[in-house]
């Protein structure tokens, strides 16, 4: 399978893209030869994949690495971004994107720095374990364990205020943050806010082709740059390949997946924290992200949902120039 449709931008999508992105893409990416996906190689390059659109990040007061307990008590790395102001600080816990099988503590470092400085909060970025080496939903399990630990022990270890916690992430990381909001509610861990960008929501293993998907954006953006149907299916196959092929181990692993594969199947969508969901106009995932926002609204939650027109799936990594101009966004719902 090819890595993605690199050159040229598909004619079905080109008229819908912001010219600023088209220029960046054509200058830095469009002439890159397409080739087979190699997971090991892609992992070494993933954290700089969208650096052509990334602007400079501000300096935090301090940045350092630490560890917290993940699923089953196994220690996992985190990176801590401290403001220059004196603590204790509110804390924002970030879960990076990468389709469950990619990403590390460098992936969203510039986003974490911006949040730390602009919001004057401590940011803790969680390096959850990846598929296929570990069975899905390990990313969710590790991330929720990290949240539990930070809530219980973070005041002493990280000088944070455990009554002022927010969650966030991009793509698969957004999915993780949204699921953790449900788990935190059930565990009576108070959250002030969940803010995510271009989250994955649905379980696309149910569909063989983009045309089978119920989401119009999946068909309209089947050949979008940076994330398209073929690449989504590659990531999804990677996720399900992490599950044992047979026997009791498979049964227990599938039981652990529960409704996590499709957050629209969550059994209870009431009493969730204020949620911000950013979607991208040229992203196959934008319809399902907005459907989840509508479901939260219909269950009485406070939601801000904005679609940024003309930009692709990883636009939150692209803060150079006009790509993150708030005037280019369309706000659909605010309750």
Please state the CA-atom Rg, rounded to the nearest Å: 19 Å
Q: What best-fitting shape do the alpha-carbon axes yield?
A: globular
Tally of distinct domains: 1
Q: How would a crystallographer describe the biggest sheet?
A: 9 strands, mixed
Query: What is the structural class?
Result: alpha/beta
Q: Spell out the helices and strands N to C.
A: HHEEEHEHEHEHHHEHEE
CATH architect. name: 3-Layer(aba) Sandwich
**Unreliable runs, pLDDT <50, ≥5 residues?**
322-335
CATH H-level homologous superfamily name: Alpha/Beta hydrolase fold, catalytic domain
Features:
alpha/beta; single chain; AB_hydrolase_fold; globular; 9 helices; Rossmann fold; disordered C terminus; hydrolase activity; 335 residues; 9 strands
What do you see in this structure?
By secondary structure, the chain is α/β, with parallel strands linked by helices. The protein has a single domain, classed as Rossmann fold (3-Layer(aba) Sandwich). Helix content is 32%, strand content 20%. It is built from nine helices and nine strands. It has helices at residues 19-28, 39-45, 109-119, 138-158, 172-186, 216-220, 229-241, 247-257, 286-298, and strands spanning 62-69, 75-82, 89-95, 122-126, 160-170, 193-197, 275-282, 303-312, 329-334. The protein has a nine-stranded mixed beta sheet, sandwiched between helices. Strand 7, helix 9 and strand 8 (303-312) form a beta-alpha-beta unit. Helix 4 crosses helix 5. The longest helix is centred in the middle third of the chain and has 21 residues, at 138-158. The radius of gyration is 19 Å and the shape is globular. The model is unreliable at 322-335 (pLDDT under 50).
């Amino acid at each position: 399978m090819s890595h993605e449709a690199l050159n040229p931008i598909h004619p079905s999508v080109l008229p819908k893209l912001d010219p600023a992105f088209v220029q960046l893409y054509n200058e830095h990416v469009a002439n890159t030869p397409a080739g087979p996906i190699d997971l090991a190689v892609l992992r070494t390059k993933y954290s700089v994949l969208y650096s052509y659109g990334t602007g400079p990040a501000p300096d935090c007061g301090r940045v350092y690495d630490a560890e917290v307990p993940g699923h089953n008590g196994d220690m996992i790395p985190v990176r801590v971004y401290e403001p220059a102001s004196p603590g204790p600080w509110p804390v924002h816990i970030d879960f990076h994107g990468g389709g469950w099988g990619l990403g590390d503590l460098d992936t969203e470092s510039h986003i974490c720095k911006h949040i730390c400085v602009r919001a004057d909060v401590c940011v803790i970025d969680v390096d959850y374990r990846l598929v296929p080496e570990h069975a899905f939903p390990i990313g969710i399990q590790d991330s929720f364990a990290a949240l539990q630990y930070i809530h219980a022990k973070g005041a002493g270890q990280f000088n944070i205020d455990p009554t002022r916690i927010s969650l966030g992430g991009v793509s698969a990381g957004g999915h993780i943050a949204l699921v953790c909001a449900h788990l935190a509610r059930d565990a009576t861990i108070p959250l002030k806010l969940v803010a995510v960008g271009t989250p994955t929501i649905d379980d696309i293993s149910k569909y063989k082709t983009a045309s089978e998907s119920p989401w119009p954006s999946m068909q309209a953006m089947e050949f979008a740059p940076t994330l398209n149907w073929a690449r989504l299916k590659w990531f999804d196959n990677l996720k399900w390949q992490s599950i044992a092929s047979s026997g009791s181990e498979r049964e227990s692993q599938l039981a652990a997946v529960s409704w996590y594969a499709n957050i629209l199947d969550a059994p209870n969508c009431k009493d969730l924290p204020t949620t911000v969901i950013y979607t991208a106009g040229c992203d196959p995932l934008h319809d399902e992200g907005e459907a989840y926002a509508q479901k939260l609204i219909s269950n009485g939650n406070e939601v801000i949902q904005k679609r940024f027109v003309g930009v692709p799936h990883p636009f939150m990594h692209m803060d150079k120039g006009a790509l993150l101009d708030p005037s280019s966004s369309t706000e659909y719902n605010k309750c």
